[in-house]
Every structure is written in structure tokens, then in C-alpha cells.
Amino acid sequence: MLETNAKKNTIKNIVFDFGDIFIDLDKLASMRLIHKEFPEFTLNQDIINTNNEYEKGIISTTNFIESYKKSLPNISDERLKEIWNAIILKIPTHRLAFIEELSQKGNYELFLLSNTNELHIEQVIKNNGLKSYHRFKNCFNKFYLSHEIKFRKPNRDIFEFVLNDNNITPGETLFIDDTLEHINTAKQMGFHTWNLIPGKEDITELFSKDYPFKD
């Protein structure tokens, strides 16, 4: 689903999410594996808070693992990492080619804005190779990972950080994400938005959408 800013300002900047926009994810993989080994496990508010703190870089990987082990008795650190990282798949070559071509044309300022964490980024590099990861990263003017900048979506402060850090305005910026909650915050702030639906839409279809792109 796509929506455009009411002012119809020309888009000069594009802010992309990462997961299920460029890299494929299996979002249910970790819970499937946990429940296979620990059927009684429940995702309570304390665990959700731990996940959010880890995404914001507030707690270290070591503290994150120790926190989970309280709910998963006798699990090894390595097995926990395997389960946690099972969500991460690969960046399809057609999407890498798309963002490389868009970057090379130089018509837009390109930004990546991802809720992620240290372990997941390590797995991204492992699955895709360091060379491909750097090819991807180098396509963007700025590459914002939540655990590095200490903000996370859908909070307004992460969008304000990107705007202020680059001296850009929401009315000239398109934000693309597969999570409606994130889209809603951006929309309220005046961004153009595309709530991309994984499996039904692909980022390579971007310029077939009815946005006020530059000629």
C-alpha cells in the first residue's frame, strides 16, 4: 500500500528499511526453533523489552544472551545465537542490482534505516559474504542501524535523527517499510510512504508507483 504526502513535494530522498525490503527474512524461524526445544516458552513483556534494548544498543550481546538464558535453561550460547539468527536469510541478487543501479544514477539521496542488532548484522555478513555486504552498504549516502545510533522505529526520534543529520525534510522524502506501525509514524510526520507487502510487492517495482519522483 502506498501513500503520498498531501503537499506533493518532489521526492529527493529515499529512506529504505532493510528486512524484507532488501534482505529476505523468515520472521517466525526463531520462535519455531525455541518452541521445538522449549515448548513452554512465552514471549512476555520482559523479553520484548530485552529485545528492544538490544536493538537500541542499550545492552551488549553478552547481556542479551544471559538475559535469554534465564528463560531457556541449559541452552548453550552458540545454540541461542543460532536460534536468534535463524530469521536472517539472503539479499537476492536482483535487489542488490536494483539498489546499485539506483545509487550509480545519483538522482536521489539514499538512506538505510533498520531496526537490527549486532548478532543479526554478523549473520547478514556471514550469509551474504563481506564483499556483497559492502557492495550493498556502499549504495547508501548513510547507513543507519538502530543498535549503532541508539534509536529504533517506530519512535519519532529515529526519524528526527535522520532528518536532522542530513538536513532534509519529510515532504521531500519517501520512507519504505514493511511494518505498518513504522509507516504510520513517518506518515504523521509528513513523509511520503510505501508500506511494502513482502511476497506481493518487491522493491524493484519502486518506479512503477505513483509518486512525485524527479523527472
Automatic annotation (TrEMBL):
Which InterPro entries does the UniProt record give? Answer: HAD-like_sf, HAD-SF_hydro_IA, HAD_2, HAD_sf, PGP-like_dom2
One matching Pfam family, short form? HAD_2
Enumerate the NCBIfam families for this protein: HAD-SF-IA-v3
What protein name applies here?
A: Haloacid dehalogenase superfamily protein, subfamily IA, variant 3 with third motif having DD or ED
Q: Which residues form a coiled coil?
A: none
Out of the domains of life, which is the source?
Answer: Bacteria
